[in-house]
Amino acid sequence: MLQCDANGMETVKIPTFLDREKLKEFYQIIKPIQIVTDILQADSLTSNICLLSLLNAGANIKKVDCRFYGSFQMRLLEELKKRFDNSVMKAPVYILASVLDPRQHLTLFKSSKEKRLAMSLKVPSKEQAIQVLKDAFADFSDGSRTPVTLTAASVPKSAGIYSLIDEISEELRADKQDEIESYINLDCENIDAISFWRANKQKFPTLYNIAMSVLACPASSGSVERLFSVAGALRRHRRNRLHISTVEKLLLYRENI
Amino acid sequence: MSPKQKQFDMLLLNLVAKDGLPFDITNAEAFQKLVNFLNPMYTVKSRTTIRNLLDSKMKDINFNVSKDLDGVGKQCVHIIVDIWTSKDLQGVFGIKCQFIDRNYELKNKTIGFLSFNQEHTGFNIATETTNILKEKNVSLNQIGYIMADNASNMVKAYEGSIILYDDSEDEEEDNDSTVPINFEEEYANWNRLGCIAHTLQLAINDAIKKDFNASETKNYINAIMVFFHRHIKCMNDLKKEAGVGLPSVSKTRWNSLLFAVERMVNKVRILRLKLKYIKYRHETFLIVCFFNHRKKYFLPSKKSCCSVMPMAWKLLKFLLF
Description:
The structure holds two protein chains of two kinds.
Chain A lengths: L1 E3 L5 E3 L4 H24 L9 H14 L6 H15 L7 H8 L7 H4 L2 H6 L7 H15 L4 H10 L7 H23 L8 H7 L5 H11 L6 H13 L9 H13 L1
Antiparallel strand pairs in A: 1-2
Helix pairs in contact in A: 1-2, 4-7, 4-11, 8-9, 10-11
Chain B lengths: L2 H15 L11 H10 L8 H24 L6 E9 L5 E10 L5 E10 L6 H14 L7 E6 L3 H6 L33 E4 L1 H15 L1 H19 L1 H11 L13 H11 L1 H27 L6 H20 L1
Parallel strand pairs in B: 1-4, 4-5
Antiparallel strand pairs in B: 1-2, 2-3
Helix pairs in contact in B: 1-3, 6-7, 8-10, 10-11
């Protein structure tokens, strides 16, 4: 702490080597957070590694062997749990992005219940993940599904002529289930997510659409933050009368030329 | 105009846009001399010409952006929104989009960067967003998620969000609870996502705040920072010996605390030496003053101070290290 001695000169407590050990431990506890922040605010695909890196951070925080900051460690994990368990860990985008990443598939969600409970954050189960995938599938499949449900509701099943429609729609539905089924049964491949979907567009047409939507999603607002820092540099001290619209033009020009 | 001259003008514009030089560079004498030295054929155009060149490029660029967005499927364009306050206290509304384009590349493009001097209420933010998107011809069914920080006005702006965790602690409170938000129907299904990086910082700050041990540590780190930042001479000495200074901890810069801790852990030896030296020097100085006061008439104070200190410092060094 800053203290003033009798003469009004500020002094500060000299750090001892014990302080150093303490600081080291403190550093180890908060380091994982910095690593995830850096990963998630990059200008590359981030949504697919979002859950993974958060879990990783939690695990790394847990791993630190605490001598001084045991309670802080617990507190930090608690805060992370409070903020992420009911939002990010449940957000369909991030779940879908994980599942549709060919390097991960369902691995993250497959582990046993005990193991999932032992993790630092709440991981959805495999069934939940598949359900999310199915829901998204229904959302993205083009129209052909909606009339089917209508007929099923308004016309008794046995009604003669419609049975053909029912049959076909059943088949269509089965096809779609197959798409999910056969994707899930694939083995994990060590391949970049976008390249994978580029190659498998024909094989999984609907999943492809979902992947294109979900993988593009950012995990943080880092890119706008960076835009502002460039704008701040352009519009620095001596040039602060530069009009905002001119700054916009300069920014757009930088980006596109 | 010769094509070479045209190219030169473009390069001059690049100098302004990419390297951040002022438009006024065209009037700078030294710069004109430089150009003249390199090739007297080229003339440096006036700043208005360069500005007009930039304006003329805008059409191409706007067209480019909409062309990029053209083949992209529904819900495949995600929007990132934030509000910034510039140094002269102007509000700025920044909006970017991210998507995978037809060539399977992840693109991250600026849609708008506009002055935003209304009150930062949820309603105003929502209206501004729709206006920009309309203006830039972004088709609404292409829009997937909206990424914003966790301030309450952002949450309110993009209501119907899937992430409802409301964190108003770090940003200013808004008071628009009485303003009804009437969106046109097509805007009603916006999905907001909270920025994870922001949330992580909030988590860490809260954890420190709530834990006594950790907040003590943070205060101590701050105290050392403040001390060195206040005493320029000490800071310079430290820099000379350690090769680096101490970064300041700021509330808004992500992970700044961590970087400070990192530096301190690495440089604790020098830091210790320095602080000890300063403290000791101070004490020696006091002692010297004390004696000088008594023997005012025998010793000139400056000289004694100089002769006592190095010795004291050597003794101290010997005792401690």
